[in-house]
Amino acid sequence: MKKGWKWLSLTLLVTIFAVFMAACSQTTGGGSGSVDVGIVLPTKDEPRWVQDEQRFKEALADSDYTTEILFSQGSSAKEKENVETLLNKGIKVLIICPHDGDAAAAAVEAAKKDGVTVISYDRLITNTDAVDYYVTFDSVAVGAAQGQYLVDNVSGSDVPLYLYAGAASDNNAFLFFEGAWNVLQPKIADGTFKVANSSEAEALKDKAMLSRDEMSKILGQVTTNWDPNEAINKAQTHLTAVGADLKGDVAVLAPNDGTARSIADVFASDGDVSSYIVTGQDAEKASIQYVIDGKQSMTVFKDVRTLVTDAMGMAVSILDGDTPETTGSYNNGSVDVNAKQTDVIVVNQENVQKELIDSGYYEASEFEGL
């Protein structure tokens, strides 16, 4: 009899725990059970994606459709597992920002086999025909804005130029670099800039249009893999390797805010670097403080509110049986993917108040020295 009561108690505990876990689900929107829209983001370890998660939750607060947000934590295997989890919950639309554009192909192909519409979010999934739509900022325009800022804020000739890039596994890293190269290359060729940290870029300085393979060679020398620690190591290595003639007043193409802050700290600590201009993107809070303090020169503001609104608007259109609005297309190596593009804004000390505080994106109380 005692054994029977123990078994019954254990069963009750398991049942209570299961109910508790169900209550703690990340699913949002109306109702419970199956999920209409599955969202997969690359990692919780970068402020950018935590910020996107929050914006999605805000956008979905009053939604009639159910959603679930999962993170892949920088693992393509976990990403595929997340997609499978969402497929098992009956999603009809998948919004996914891939950790690795090529590796994500297998995950979205499984989604397509289940009749799910796939929206590639912010980063393009490559070399598969299983992507239906792409919601993105104009990544080439981001790189062009970074490059133009450097051009507009240097003077003289032979200005040492340090190039850095994102991860070679991320198609956006190539688009950012392409945009920057389009602007910087003529100024490298005419002697305004002298590339300080990439022999591959120096060898290609007279070539306006680079092939993917040529960009890959440059990225192989200057990639940060979007990792601030790797950016520190790269910057320290590069500054150690060059002489005083490649220091002084320098220009630095940093791909995003996390790497920009790391690189800026390294350059600021070198006694032979008298001044530096450094780019960034994402308008992370920490980098906005750096911009205010004069430690980072600019950031490219990509209003995630707009990107999230575009992605969810597209998903709702699909669920309602309508055709989503698009503004262009991107070739992913297999097909031309219809895309909705969102504009970007350059933010520096002069307009940080207007673009980020007055617009309601951040609160003034979150910063010092405004």
Automatic annotation (TrEMBL):
Keywords: Signal. One of its GO terms (cellular component) is outer membrane-bounded periplasmic space. GO terms for molecular function: carbohydrate binding. The keyword ATP-binding does not apply. InterPro entries: Bact_Solute-Bind_Prot2, Peripla_BP_I, SBP_2_dom. Residues 37-322 form the Periplasmic binding protein domain. It comes from the Bacteria. It is found in: Cell envelope. PANTHER family: D-XYLOSE-BINDING PERIPLASMIC PROTEIN. This is Sugar ABC transporter substrate-binding protein. It comes from Mangrovibacillus cuniculi.
